[in-house]
Amino acid sequence: MSFTLPGQLADTPEEECAVFGVFAPGQDVARITGFGLQALQHRGQESAGIAVGDGASMVEAKDLGLVTQVFDEAKLAALEGFVAVGHCRYSTSGAAASWEAAQPHISAIDNVLVALAHNGTLVNTEALRAQLDAEGVVLRAGTDSEVAAKAIGHITQDTHHLRQGIRWLMEHMEGAYAMVLASPDALYAFRDPNGIRPLCIGGLPGGGWVVSSETCGLDIVGATYLRDVEPGEIVRFNRDGFTAEQGVVPGRRASCIFEYVYFARPDSVLDGQSVYQARRAMGRILAREAPARADLVLGVPDSGVPAALGFAEASGIPFTDGIVKNRYVGRTFIQPTQEMRQMGIRLKLNPLPSVIGGKRLVVIDDSIVRGNTSRQLVAMLREAGAAEVHLRIVSPEVLWPCFYGIDTDTRDQLIAANMTLPQMNEWIGSDSLAFISLEGLRASLPDVCHPGFCEACFTGDYVVPVPLP
């Protein structure tokens, strides 16, 4: 069987960004934001930035690279103030890596100064851009996040109320967004009416507040989780306290279910659900739905490991660490040669022949998108001496692209949209292949405190209508 996928595309779904915000007079908000972004680094490794307000003005630092590559002691010390927003970025399909696209985006229109950081993707950016262009607003970066920042600044200039500018944008933009915005003297957080991307609020022990894409960002700075930013809500933090305006735009609750499968850190809690416990439950359910006769259970690091522990627990097959991950390859600006690129997965994962040699393996992974990585992984395990490789996936088949901030491109690049299960198994080279059912995935999330998810990548049922090209 012949099947060819684009070789230069990533073979795992990639999340667009992480956002972080702080309002804390008397504290080092730039340093707090820097630590928060390090905890959220898994959500984007392309660029990082922080903007800080001191009551009268704002200063910003951003560049391409990891948080620790962009910020050192001198840069953080220069960011003085009491309100900050930060961002680390992964560019989605079609977006280029550039300084201009790095966030936060600062909008300075007359006397309205704001800095905005965005996680997600808008699906009606072109219409908003055309409207701003017609009204003389200059756009340089070409990103939906810059359009959002400039729109808020432009409307605020006319209304003289920043919340009016945010409200106008929320009423007119469509798609997925979890945004933090700083003016020189206040912090704002707001979320799309479906709550597709996560955003939570924490209280700092010395006073002040933190907003983060995940609870792991709160944990690293010692903040106490208070609650999530509700879908369709605007929250403001300033010297007068913490106020919220709910129901700004209506919607249906539909958080991205893939956050639990892959994107979020296992130590985060989303909508009341421990991500780690959800992944263990996925493995247990998958063991019941798709058992295998094997000697060992392996998890593909890192997101596959909790699920592998659950699979081992339910099946009685011993779990082992049979694959070692190099966590720094691919998160550096040292570029591999073409020969090294051809090694593919070997740059990141290395099997342990002394552990897996002669063994029948159940290998647990989070997803299969384009199939290249799975094919290389199976071949690598066989070369290391595995007798059999039974691949088990803790998400259903990815059949549809995501337009809300995940890089899954088009249907012709999704292996499950182009092959039957037996064809996929043959092309990947595994002895058997099985995916968790959608019902099984839902059942692994018993503690989620709302009734619905965005499952469009599995079902094609898009929460927000996507404009046709």
- Put simply, the count of helices is 16
Radius of gyration using CA atoms only: 22 Å
Which residues sit in consecutive blocks of at least 5 with pLDDT less than 50?
1-10
CA-based shape: elongated
How large a portion of the residues is in β-strands, by DSSP E? 15-25%
Biggest sheet record? 7 strands, antiparallel
Beta strands, count: 23
Average per-residue pLDDT, rounded, comes to 91
Please identify the structural class as seen in this structure: alpha+beta
Order of strands in the sheet with most strands:
3-2-4-1-10-9-11
Terminal CA distance reads: 32 Å
Helix content: 25-40%
Gist of the model:
The chain is of the alpha+beta class and 469 residues long. Helix content is 29%, strand content 23%. The chain has helices at 29-39, 67-70, 73-77, 125-134, 144-159, 162-172, 215-220, 258-263, 275-289, 304-315, 338-342, 353-356, 372-383, 421-428, 438-443, 456-459; strands spanning 17-23, 47-53, 58-64, 83-89, 105-109, 112-119, 178-183, 186-191, 200-203, 209-212, 224-228, 234-238, 241-245, 255-256, 269-270, 273-274, 296-299, 323-325, 349-351, 360-365, 388-393, 432-435, 453-454.
Task: Describe the overall structure.
The protein has 469 residues and is an alpha+beta fold. The chain has a seven-stranded antiparallel beta sheet. The chain has a six-stranded antiparallel beta sheet with strand order 5-6-7-8-12-13. β15 and β16 form a beta hairpin. The longest helix is centred in the N-terminal third of the chain and has 16 residues. It starts with 16 loop residues before the first strand and ends in a 10-residue tail after the last helix. The N terminus is likely disordered.
